[in-house]
Amino acid sequence: MALKRMLENWSRLRQQDYYAEEPYMWGMAIDLNKCIGCGACVTACYAENNLPVVGKERCGSGHSMHWMRIERYWTEPEGTPEIEQEEASDFPERGAHYLPMMCQQCNHAPCEPVCPVAATYHSPDGLNTQVYNRCVGSRYCANNCPYKVRYFNFFEFWKDLPHPLEMQLNPDLSVRDKGVMEKCTFCVQRIRAAKDAAEDAGHPEHVEDGTLMTACQQGCPTQAIVFGNLKDPESKVKKSWASHQVELDRYEQDKSEDVRGYRVLEELNTESCVMYLDRVRDTEA
Amino acid sequence: MSENKSSSNWTRRSFIKAMGLGGAAGSALVLSGCGDTDIINEVDIEVRKEKVEPNVDPQDYVRPGIEMYYASTCRQCPAGCGVHARIREGRVLKLEGNPVSDVNHGRLCPMGQAGLQSHYNPDRLTKPMLRKGGKLVEISWDEAEDVLRKNLGRKNAKLAWLSGATSGHHRALVDAYLAAAGAKNHFVFDTLPPAVGHAANQEMFGSYMPRLDFDKARLIVSFGADFLGTWMSPVQFSTQYAEFRNAPRGTLVQIEPKMTLTGANADRWIPARPGTEGHLALALASLLVQKSEYADRVPADVVASLKDVNVDEVAKLCDIPVERIHHLHHLMTDRSPSLVLSGASAEGVQHGFETARAILMLNVLLGNVGETILPRSEDPFPALAPRMGGWSEVKAMVDGLNKGSFDTVVVFGSNPLYQAPGFMQADKAFDKAKFRISFSMFPDETTMACDLVLPVHSYLEEWNTTMPAYAATDGYLGLQQPVMNPVFGSHATRSFGDLMLDVLKHMDPNFKQWDSYQAYVMGALWTMRPALVKQYKPSVPGQTEEEAFKQGILSDGFVQMKVAKAAKIEAKVSAVTLPAEKANANYPFRLIPSARLGLWDGRHANVPWLQELPDQLTEVVWDSWIEIHPKTAEKLGVITGDVVQVESSAGKAKVKVVVFPGIHPDAVAIPLGQGHTEYGRYAKGVGVNPFSILAALFDGKTGELATYATDVKVAKIESRGKLVTLANGDLVLESNTSTQAGRELVKTTTAENFDLTEKGA
Amino acid sequence: MKDIEWARINKDVLASLESPRAAFWIVLAVCIALVLCGVAAEVYQYKHGLGVALMDKPHYWQLYISNFVFWIGMSHSGTLLSAILLLTKADWRKPIYRFAEAMTLFSILTAAIFPVIHLGRVWYMYWVLPYPNQHTIWPNFRSPLLWDAAAITTYALSSILFLYVGMIPDLAICRDNAKGWRKKLYTALSVGWMGRATEWMAFRKTYVLIACFLVPLAVSVHSIVASDFAMSIMPDWHITSFPPYFVAGALYSGCAAIITLFVMLRYIFKFEAYMTTEIMDKTAKLTFAIAMVWNFLNLGEYASIWYSNDMFEKEVLIQKFIGPYAPVVWGMLLCAMVAPFAMAFEKFRHNMWAMFWLSLVLQLGMWLERFQIVSPPLASNHEPWTWAVVWPGTVQLTLTAASFGWFTMLFLIFCKIFPSVSMYEVKEMVFHRRHASSRDEMEDIGKIKDEVMRSEGGLA
Amino acid sequence: MNSYANWAILMDNFLFALYMPLAAIFWCAVLHLVNGKWRYEVRFLMSSATALFPLGFVLLLIILASGAKSFPWMGGDTFGEPLNGWHNIIFFDLRQIGLFLAVWAFCSYFVKLQKQEYPTADPVARRKFRNVALLVPFIYCIYGTIMSWDFEMTQIPRWWSPIYGPYHFESMMRVFLAFFIIALFFLRKRNLLKRPTHDYVFNYCAQIMLALTIIWTYAFFMQYLIMWYGDLPFEIERFHKMMDGPNWFLFWAFFLMNSFIPFLMLIFSAIRHSPALMLFPAFSILMGTFLERYMWIISPHADDIDHTPFFSSWEDIAITAGVFLVGCFLWNRRMKKDGLYGTDEEVMERRHAEA
Predict the structure, then answer these.
(1) Which segments constitute the 4Fe-4S Mo/W bis-MGD-type domain (chain B) (predicted)?
(2) Are C122 and C46 in contact, with CB atoms under 8 Å apart?
(3) Is the CB of B278 inside 8 Å of chain A's CB atoms?
């Protein structure tokens, strides 16, 4: 049985464009011109996804579980024209560089092939899915993730939750036990609910753009995050990708220099579903 | 299992839902894992026809498996954002911004998100306590109410009432009570609302907070106003900021000694030497008045007073290249309209009021008044208007206590024993009162020093109204309603409104008509309805008008009151003179007690999410630290993680170093929020409290504490300890600050290019 | 060697099985104590989660994996000496291959522990095996970890087989000389070996066949271990030379371990007559050659990274040499790259104790090598934000120490139950040498025809 | 000579002209170090290949003079990334010429010492020779690595593979043996040699070739597997260009000719022991390696050019034939000079005896 199933799967896997018929491909666009680095998305993610608070000591030993984190850098990357190199200053006069970083939902994810038990796989709608129940905790996926956005349950964090804080836990998704890997899901529970709602409303293949928001997007005070269906030509996120000339299945974009869209570490061929838009600074100021 | 399931409809998904394992995604994750290999889902979990009905009729709130949203108002800071609370099975699970609210447009800051953890906090007080024999012992509510009535239910001129920033019906109720009790001493103390700035605004523009039009401005020059982080209404300003940054993109220049969140997003961040912002503003003014089109906007004596300003000297004083000042001047003249803001670091000095005036004067010179600075209309119900308070009020109260003017003190929503500076010795003064009452959710420092402790509901459990500290539209009144039953039950905590109403009923018969605070608030709103912009009509047959009204306002989450058209804004400018800054040889560094979005002034230190939310600039979590510029650090011989002793004339503190480029070399910054000696398991004993070492310096005009004026010295006492930061790179790299190491993680483009390309997009 | 009497061989070797000295018991007790500490550490870790081992983001792997690579590496030289030298008919392997093979087996058994305790959910470790189940779930055949599981299992089983088959004639000798429980044990294990010619012929064929199978298997096993790293896209893990580099490194540390045990056994069991300076010389030369291959691949890796100018790889390389892990890297270079040059000198090679200490230095170097393969690249990965330095905590160190205790314990017990020197092969060697020495010389001269050519052709 | 492909053929020929003497010296040294007795039969024959050094040097100069035609990165085409110091034209030319001359000199020295080394020679001379022989593997590996990187790996400057050096020089070790036994076969056939060699020489060479074939396959496959698995575009693209480009059949041809064909033949001892049958695997390896070098050199341009050596250009044939003829001439002359050929009378006599 199992062998037969495997052979069937194999032959289907070999088909080209296996997911071409799938109506959804979830994607995101994050505008670094607008992101102010406040951390609303981070807290929203904690609330939505039952992320454990690990405490000072465990933060100190690198065990924090923020699926969404905001990276702050001080320097421009090499080769950035005109900015910052204009003068040698003792101060970050152009402010900080904030980068909200979460699972990029790579379509060509380095984490997927290395899992010995296939606990992480790609869903047809473009999510890089982590199956907690199947995970044995080899942590290879986290090593192979260039963005380092996979988080491992080093402890039984849920045990530390004193009453009544556990009442806040979102019943739409589980709490994770020790020894499994977890990461941003693009709020898959909301996606599921939205798909269900769309089906109930009589259009099973179409989730209205804007009705579905990830928690980080919803909280963002500057609306720097746009989330939606990349296969829907009318969606905001698709329009943003198109206007910034970023295509999903490429590792080198064929785009004009001035357009702001880019994907982090795109050259690693991860085909990530998160597009960033350049941070902007007024060089005349 | 209920019987109304035909087996054909009984899919695995609905089965799991019925088993109570939770909803969509949880089961999707579970099922796709164990049902199949990663490629084919033959088991049809996508087909969904679910109709799960429970056997037992649940309570009102509870519709198993179905989520509901209740509109309410956030009380995590005085900004008063509208929230939607997501409820399932009678529990609030998540707070979202209320999309129709004019304050936050559906957005919510980290503190607002984390309101849940204040609400569900394990350290919440659940039993009234009375001090007996020097110790607080738990008592019954009956006893507590007796004690409360005995102490408050009488005329008492020697009663002092201390609130945090207050507004709406809480304020009205407290004021009504104080009137009934014949007490005049209502102090309001909140640390972050800019009292000095309000006073300066009041004097110049006739309103403590005129409306600001960020979107219209092409240039914002902010002297330390952290409007994205801690200034008045951060979410509201952030939404406006987002508009401001759309093409054509506005430019933000931030001038402050320590980089704030706003500074981190500025196009040009200028580290002025602390305390010199006023001089810089005057220098800019003096450059502007050289042209008559600017000079004509202010009286001649003001222009004359600016003649003496020497820009080169100011540049030296501010430690800014003089070209930068000229450049800023050109920027201001080139980009109009602009908006000049004054904030905490500029105002928190001994000449803060003057500094704020000097800064605001630039708005007048640049002609921003009426363009980006807009008038505000009179509040239709002044009794509900926000009262922000300030340091002068807490000082007055402490002075009064020391003099023995008060025998009874009531504290609600404020924590002076933590927030008042150490030199005031608020705790000793507090001891002098005969009877101290605290209405509080948490065992904070002040509460634990009181004689009667009354645990109150969280803002998600009670009825109330709130007027935001700053709203883009006038006449906005936020409504609060309980979004769930009290977490610990009604026997454990009580609504502050109910308690006070109860007391008040015995003193003022007018209040007997309302059974509860809910009835009081809703009754008040019902009587206010002619004054509201929106009218609510019954939509369902059989619904009374009152029901329709109540349902309408509760689903909106706020009401909009009609306001008179605002008068034209007139600026009143007079000459500003600033004293020269003098260096303090014993204490070479200026201490900046910086606030941040997150822990705020320390009130959120007991919220684990916020403790674990890294500081936006240093990325430190769960700790206090001192920010020191790399140059200064080199001079002091310290690296990130070292422990130093910070000493001011008022005290000393031990704290870990973070070498931080975004600070003036003459300044050191210790963030607010930590150093609690009480306040539950998450806050107690974490870090240090910079309030405790502030020196006794006050703004000359307003009497506000000059929080940014304390001078300190810093000495290393221990080598590298464990500093807990999420920016691991900071600890690894020699530079102490993580770089992108050549990767193009954050790419940057120019505003010029942005404007060119985004117009098409 | 020429002086060994036939009778003495049995006597000497069998003597090593009897009445251990006090030192033996002390060492054994220490080893058991270490193992117990390890068990305690593992129980603690099991109970609280892997966090107590002080791994973190981004160091999701650390000492457990380093140790795994170290021990699996050590297991390679037993096979090399035994199988390759058997196939190439180098007879100097004979006195030392038995304990080398035992070492192989026990280091595999040690290595196999580490992936298990490394797992977040140990209790589901069988999920990496392809077994039929009602969920019709297969493991992910694309994962190098799965290849690992398969390779190690195969290698462990083959190694046991190789060791056991090669020991049968000796077990028969033991059987003939033993009493009590030993008699029963050896009788069972020697499967009725009588030493008939047909038995010998079958034995030879089987033995060579297993050896032929083992050589590529050993290479593939360590190549697969290397692929755990090389298949990833992590800078400084994604290195095409890792498979041969790991194989060379494995042989290298294994040879060093052989030298260590060589000297110890020689000293403890008084095997001076068997484990001669000449054999040590050959072993040392072999080790030297392997060390040079390892060096070449190591330096080639550095050079090619530098040559490529690849940003990510270069960053790791720079961090390796000047970053927080620099002491480890420099320690490795000193111990494993510079130290082996001592073996270029004959005097050094012939000094047993010098070789003993050198072998320990080499092993330390190779252990550090494994550490620096795993940790520094994780520390300076693609995402500078997450760069962090983590040194292994007590739990990891305890388990590391326990692994040494476990290995030594197994080895000590083995030495007392089974002959650690192959009696029959030493006899063969003595026989061959005695009878063949004169004939070899004749052959040599017969083959030397250059001289003839020289005289004829007038090459000057 | 406009097409890049022509220059690639020239480089291909250069590498063969270089490695024939170099690998010959390597084998002489290794056989000496491992005390292979049969070395006495072949060592002078092998080492006479040093006659090809002048040819290699001339080709090197031509290639260096051609500049960007041989090395695209010299034309400023740096693929958008800054190059490191090695990619510096002057440094490149200097090290190529300098290293070549140094290696040439060393090999000549080795040959000189080898002539003085025989079992009954002065122990001091023997030791000296042994020490020099010890150096040879080091020099071979290091110089081979440099050559592989400079001429093949960095045809795409930032494409890198640490195993590339061993993969390259290992391949060239093997092709020398292949070439050598072909040459030996024909020399024997024509009875030219002063002292005939035994058949077992073919078997020994074949055994080594078998081992090297396995190692070649291992190295090639591992390099490919790691790049394929990692799937980093910059790495795997090069393979894709070779495999899917216009000359894809050459890629598969060299892969088969270098791995399966020789392996499947050399595992049979009957073939190993038959000099005539050994011609098949030897030719396979010779052609396979020639194509292999060509494909690696040409790979960055594989989708730009549509050039198949020998089929689409007479220049390729001319160049290769010319190099081959000059090489034969030089080698032949050296063997004569070294007295490896029998005198005419001897040869005639033996031919006569055979007939």
Answers:
(1) 67-123
(2) yes
(3) no
Neighbouring chains of C at 3+ CB pairs under 8 Å are: A, B, D
Non-local CB neighbours of B215 within 8 Å, separated by 6+ positions: B240, B243, B244
Nearest to C138 among B37, B728, B740 (CB): B37
- Which pair of structure tokens corresponds to residue C295? 């060096």
Instruction: Give how far D118 is from chain C: nearest CA, Å.
Output: 7
State in Å, rounded, how far the first CA of chain B is from the last one.
Answer: 55
SS3 state of residue B248:
coil
Domains belonging to chain A, first-starting first, are 23-76+90-277 (3.30.70.20)
**Distance from C295 to chain A by nearest Cα, in Å?**
27
Structure-block tokens of residue D113: 């010492």
Chain centroid to CA C420: 16
| Inter-chain CB pairs, B–C, below 8 Å | 47
Report the distance separating Cα B434 and Cα B16, nearest Å: 60
- Give me the domains of chain B, ranges plus CATH numbers: 1-53 (no CATH), 129-189+389-456+493-523 (3.40.50.740), 195-374 (3.40.228.10), 589-732 (2.40.40.20)
Local structure of B404: helix, strand or coil: coil
Residue B750 phi, psi dihedral angles, 5° rounding? -90, 155
Measure the N-to-C terminal CA separation of chain C; round to a whole number of Å.
Answer: 41
Contacts of C311 in chain B (CB under 8 A): 741-743
How far apart (Å, rounded) are the C-alpha atoms in residues B385 and D106? 96
User: How is residue D187 written in tokens?
Assistant: 């020399």
For residue A154, CA distances in Å to B232, B726, C59, C306 come to 40, 17, 12, 36
Tokens linked to B157? 């001129």
pLDDT, tens digit, for every residue of B174-207? 999 999 999 889 999 988 888 999 999 999 988 8
Cβ of A137 within 8 Å of Cβ of C384? The answer is no
The residues, any chain, with a CB within 8 Å of residue D320's CB and separated by 6 or more, are D9, D13, D309, D310
Structure tokens at B287: 């450059």
- For residue B296, what are the contacts with CB-CB under 8 A and spacing of at least 6? none
Asked if D40 lies within 8 A of C447 by C-beta distance, the reply is yes
Residues 82-101 of D with CB under 8 A from C: 82-84, 86
Average pLDDT of adjacent 10-residue blocks, chain C of 460 residues? 64 76 87 95 92 88 93 84 81 83 90 91 89 83 90 90 90 86 89 88 90 89 91 92 92 91 85 84 91 93 87 89 91 94 91 92 94 91 87 92 94 88 81 64 52 44
ipTM, two decimals, is 0.88
The CA distance from D232 to the nearest CA of chain A, in Å, is: 5
Say whether residue C451 is in contact with chain D using an 8 A CB cutoff: yes
Q: Are A267 and D234 within 8 A, CB to CB? A: yes
Instruction: Dig out the tokens for D8 from the structure.
Output: 């690639």
Round the CA-based radius of gyration of chain D to a whole number and report it.
21
pLDDT tens for each residue of B109-159: 999 999 999 999 999 999 999 999 889 999 999 999 999 999 988 888 889
Residues B202-206: contacts with CB under 8 Å, at least 24 apart? B203/B357, B203/B572, B204/B357, B204/B360, B204/B361, B204/B364, B204/B571, B204/B572, B204/B573, B205/B360, B205/B369, B205/B373, B205/B375, B205/B569, B205/B570, B205/B571, B205/B572, B206/B569, B206/B570, B206/B572
CATH T-level assignment (fold) for domain C6-14+24-427:
Formate dehydrogenase/DMSO reductase fold (1.20.1630)
Whole-number Å distance between alpha carbons of C425 and B16: 67
For residue B484, the one-letter residue type is M
A269 contact residues in D (CB cutoff 8 A) = 231-233
C-alpha distance from C174 to closest chain D C-alpha (Å): 38
